């Protein structure tokens, strides 16, 4: 099963946007996410609809943050992305007749529900400002590490 990294990817580019003094193009953001600019624009549309970012076309255009970093939680970004599945576990059968499968589904269903509630709560406690502060702390320690959007180099 493929891992959904949309939330991590979008948080990554939002932090890059926060430190940039000029708009970031879809192409530059997509390169940082290792995806196609069309995919990036689709993801950013939900953020634009929530007022987190805005975009402008033409020379000098691109994406910019449209809100204060302390006003945006990781949960609100997750919700703007359309609330992709948090847990990738599934059931062998959704509506089993087998009593063993029913017991398994019930136990897993309760555990997954509890885990999702806790994760959403924690995501609601962390803001983009919190991440930006952690990034600045890391920059003080690792001054020469790549940290600008244009410096993205992936080994993979």
From TrEMBL:
Q: Does the keyword GTP-binding apply?
A: no
Report the leader peptide range.
none
Designated name of the protein:
DNA-binding transcriptional regulator, IscR family
User: Where do transmembrane segments lie in this chain?
Assistant: none
Q: Which UniProt keywords apply?
A: DNA-binding
Molecular function GO labels: DNA binding
Q: What is the lineage of its organism?
A: Bacteria, Pseudomonadati, Pseudomonadota, Alphaproteobacteria, Hyphomicrobiales
- Keyword hit for Transcription regulation: no
Q: A Pfam family matched by this chain, by name?
A: Rrf2
